[in-house]
Amino acid sequence: MLKKWRRILIIGGYVIFAGFSLLLALSYTFPADVVSQRLENEVQKITNGQYAIQFNNVSTYRFSGIHAKTAIIRSTQPGNQPLKMQLNDFHIRVQLLPLILFRLAIASGFDIEQGELDFQVEMQNSGAMDINMDVDDLSISSPPILLQQFGLPVIGYLNLRTDIKWRPFDVKQTKGVLNLKLDKVAIGPGKVSGLTVPTTTIGTIKLNLTANDGIIKVASFQQEGGQVQINLDGNIKLKTKFNLSNLDLCIKIKPDQSYLNKNPNIATAWELSAAKFRKDPKGFLHIPYGGTINRPIKGTGLCKVTKDL
Fold first, then answer.
1. ∠ at Cα 242 (239, 243), nearest 5°?
2. What is the pTM (predicted TM-score) of this model?
3. How far apart are CA 70 and CA 61, in angstroms?
4. Is the peptide bond before 153 cis (omega within 30 degrees of 0)?
5. pLDDT for 124-158, tens place per residue?
């Protein structure tokens, strides 16, 4: 019996020594510079040159990854102004333990001027992925991506928690939750289609999405404060290709009367909007969205299924 345990301890010692030697070798031989250059090339290749990333002061990170003091992302999408964003303390690595089960798992994180982001992605067979992401106090005004989308500056702070198990081979097996909170949200000032929009407060937004049986549902939506009331309801029917998933969403909007009284140009535009969209008895303007994620279609009329405010 004693010989048996001695043999187990000897074998265990060899395994530990071999593992330690492997990790030590990785720490001294891992080609961080080469990997960072490959990542830079792959980003440009995947995005057809619309996005570029540059890593600075690169070093090895936890044996199987890279760490960059700064990472500069540039966007040159046609028709939009070039964007530049700096990520600080950027790191990305391949997790070693999942490789034992022949699964590729990647963990990454970074800081920006205001906020932090960490995420883990574990890739399995047939394109399946487990995604976990945490975002803390991330400023949505830098870079001004939303400015390009809406034509107005948007400020606020994003907190996000996600736990998603994406199963494209059978979307009904996809499970997950997303909890989002936006604090101190405001839009403007600026001009949209010749209309001058003052700084308009939206307040705090809380959104909870759930994925089950092939459908992403708006489980809850809450807004607190702000000069404009907003509500979101509906669902997304998942497809194997996520960007082809079908939308059935409804946005409802209603400015406060005091806000309209202070901004007569906005009040006039609000009344004219009734010619294109419908208002419910409570005065909320309904904007239904159909189509797919990559090609949303803005509808008219009242939404079919919405939650009362």
1. 115
2. 0.75
3. 14
4. no
5. 767 788 888 888 888 887 655 555 556 678 889 99
